[in-house]
Specification:
By secondary structure, the chain is an alpha/beta fold. It has three domains: 8-51, lambda repressor-like DNA-binding domains (434 Repressor (Amino-terminal Domain)), CATH 1.10.260; 63-163 and 297-327, Rossmann fold (3-Layer(aba) Sandwich); 166-296, Rossmann fold, CATH 3.40.50.2300. It is 41% helix and 14% strand. The protein has twelve helices and twelve strands. The chain has helices spanning 8-15, 19-26, 34-46, 53-60, 77-91, 105-117, 135-142, 166-179, 195-210, 230-238, 252-265, 298-313; strands spanning 65-70, 95-100, 122-125, 147-150, 161-164, 185-189, 220-222, 246-249, 274-276, 293-295, 324-327, 330-332. Strand 6, helix 9 and strand 7 form a beta-alpha-beta unit. The protein is elongated.
Amino acid sequence: MKRHQTTILDIAKELNISKSTVSRALTNHPNINPETKKKVLELAEKMDYQRNMLAISLITNKSYTIGVIVPEFISSYFPKVIVSAQIEASKAGYNIIISQSNESYETEVKNAKVMLANQVDGVLVSITKETRNYDHLKIFQRKGIPIVFFNRICEEMIVPKVIVDDYEGAFKLVEHLLQTGKKRIAHLAGPDSLSISKGRLNGYLDALKKHHIEIDEELIIPYDLSLRKVKIYVKHLLGLENPPDAIFAVNDPTAIEVVQTIKKIGLRIPEDIAIAGYSDDYASSLMEPKLTTVAQPVDEIGKIATQMLIDQINREVADWKATTKMLKTKLIIRSSTVKETTSNPE
């Protein structure tokens, strides 16, 4: 039997009204009788009516779809941002297509092509640790499709961006470690290709300089965010002639791996060595000891990035604005850096 998909005409015939009246009811048009609108919506639900987005896109030249490209789902950061973005997009009548690149540049390029093939009206992007060429993202600009970066941004593309003050967050965190009496603070830094890595490293360095702590290059280890390598780096740091008394990791997944390694070695946290992360991952407040970290306003990041993107979608290309929105972070002090937490109760 041939499957029949309910159309506006079916609803119109059933209620003995015009197709245009049904269309106005389904699109929440202001010039529609509330009682008629109620009848149309109830019947549409009963008849399992689905809007023909292909037909709508042909008429409006819009797909009402936003693409989201993120580098990973290991941490809770990106899922949280996406949830917030989805809520904001839905308010404006947009659907979301989500893809994650698994920290692979090649996969990111493929994901960008998928977004183009699906004719998204705009795209939210956070790049991978491998991304150094941005041709696959510049295509969106050439085609008049707006793009907004968040968290991990492309600095050479003049487009809207939503970031946090990574420098200030790292500065405050390292200053906290110094105030607890730590002097030899190591830093597991992220790839220098990422702006977030640079901001956090510079915050770390300037906090040491402010407190007249000599910079020891042996204590700074850039790494590619591959968690399997964390154990090697921790053992290397602890094997130094003058080992660190604290480790500041570029993100929480790294810091959590550091904690697990330290505990297996048998050192006490924070008495023998303090550990701190960045991003306030969901697991950071559940582990033992609870992880001191820097919280980012993830809900606000997703909301603002989506609002900026929809604003671009609704503008002519000549009126696009390359605004950068920088948000504040918050230091969360927990028991991985102080024995008793009183200033930030959980």
